[in-house]
Amino acid sequence: MPTSIHAPAVSFQAVSKEYATPHRGRFKALDAVSLDIRPGEFLGLLGPNGAGKTSLIAILAGLSRATSGRVLVQGFDVQQDFAQARKRLGIVPQELVFDPFFSVRETLRFQSGYFGIRHNDDWIDELLHHLGLSDKAEANMRELSGGMKRRVLVAQALVHRPPIIVLDEPTAGVDVELRQTLWHFIDRLNREGSTVLLTTHYLEEAEALCHRIAMLRQGRIVALDQTSNLLSAASHTVVQFKTDQALPSALAGFARVTGRIVQLPAQSVAEVEAHLAALREAGIRIDDLEIRRADLEDVFVKIMGEAGANDAAVAGGVR
Ligand SMILES: Nc1ncnc2c1ncn2[C@@H]1O[C@H](COP(=O)(O)OP(=O)(O)OP(=O)(O)O)[C@@H](O)[C@H]1O
């Protein structure tokens, strides 16, 4: 039973998940993850591929069982009180799975029925409107593009007006217009009181939207803080430019290189000058030089790098 109306919207309590795999034996995908999401909060769950984000969400959704630990949704245990927990959650999954013969409206009515809601057309129309789907209401699901289907997936998750919205990489592979429509709507629902849990690989979206960020690496939380605190703790500057040439070895070690784009962290003005001097000395031709403050992507790379180095040190018996 829920303990209090001030209970966290979602409480992950020492959640571990092990999978039995043919190659890796028993593999720990989540290792004692504890995290409380506050009512009304917009929380971002970030992590590289395989960090355990989807496993955590599957456990929250009641689709998968934790090996140990538990998850409460507004005080209701997702295993013992599945129906109570589930109706409080609106889950937008990664995968697009629909009955191709239903129209958009039928799909949403069917989903309303699943939650025991009849005569839901006013809210369905509102959802269609906010998600830019009004003119597709009577179209069959099979006629929709991938991006349109993704919008229906969002509408489907919201038909029962859940207080907690869970979005698992909702913008993977979708165009700018849908992203903007979606974020405008989710941001509005959040400002009206909904709690939002978002996983995404688009760090600029997380930076813009999330109040707080949890970073997961190899099944463990390695950072959990207000987005603004994470950004201000990473007070460094980034020297960014484009080049076609190989960097001198002194810089190559800590540069982040994406195609032609090179990013070099610098802790001080003197270090910015040293980087530029090293480039000049090595005769590197650079274009589009920019000196900017660190963003969430820089923070993410730094935290993941530090956590990786820590693990390596522990494994090597250094600590
Ligand atoms: N059913 C399963 N059986 C065995 N291993 C699994 C299973 N599901 C996930 N894993 C493993 O658990 C780890 C975490 O996977 P998970 O999908 O939760 O990560 P993720 O953070 O969501 O990754 P991505 O960003 O790629 O979606 C990975 O190493 C994955 O290979």
UniProtKB/TrEMBL annotation:
Coiled coil: none annotated. Pfam families: ABC_tran. The keyword Nucleotide-binding applies. It comes from the Bacteria. Keywords: ATP-binding, Cell membrane, Membrane, Nucleotide-binding, Transport. Residues 10-243 form the ABC transporter domain. One of its GO terms (molecular function) is ATP hydrolysis activity. InterPro entries: AAA+_ATPase, ABC_transporter-like_ATP-bd, ABC_transporter-like_CS, ABC_transporter_ATP-binding, P-loop_NTPase. The keyword Membrane applies. This is ABC-2 type transport system ATP-binding protein. It comes from Lampropedia hyalina DSM 16112.
